Amino acid sequence: MAVLLFLFIVVNFAAKAVLGLAAKPITAELGLSATQYGVISSVFFLVFCLAAAGGGVLADRVPSRWLLLGMAVVWALTKSRSWRQPASE
Fold it and tell me: At a CB cut-off of 8 Å and minimum separation 6, what does 70 contact?
């Protein structure tokens, strides 16, 4: 169980780190100014913080095994939708 939790943490951190690394290509492709990208990034991290607080409340009330399973299922469902999108050229 600890290894699975560690892998979730690594994937979670990597997903957020990639946004910073990909800032220039994202702003160029979408035609965003630095300010617009900053606002979008700030909103993303604000929502992440709020979700983390909600997850903490859930962790107090739901067994860890079921909470991790639920989080994995939600993550997989959201990612499966992006995998089915046609590639843009």
Answer: 62
CA atoms within 13 A on the CB side of 7: 7
- Taking the CA of residue 56 as centre, how many other CA atoms within 13 Å lie in the half-sphere pointing to its CB? 6
The answer to whether 74 and 64 have CB atoms below 8 angstroms apart is no
Q: How far apart are CA 43 and CA 50, in angstroms?
A: 11
Q: What is the mean pLDDT of residues 67-80?
A: 88
Q: Taking the alpha carbons of 62, 65, 67, 69 in that order, is the dihedral positive or negative?
A: negative
pTM to 2 decimal places:
0.59
Q: Which residues 6+ apart lie within 8 Å of 83 measured at CB?
A: none
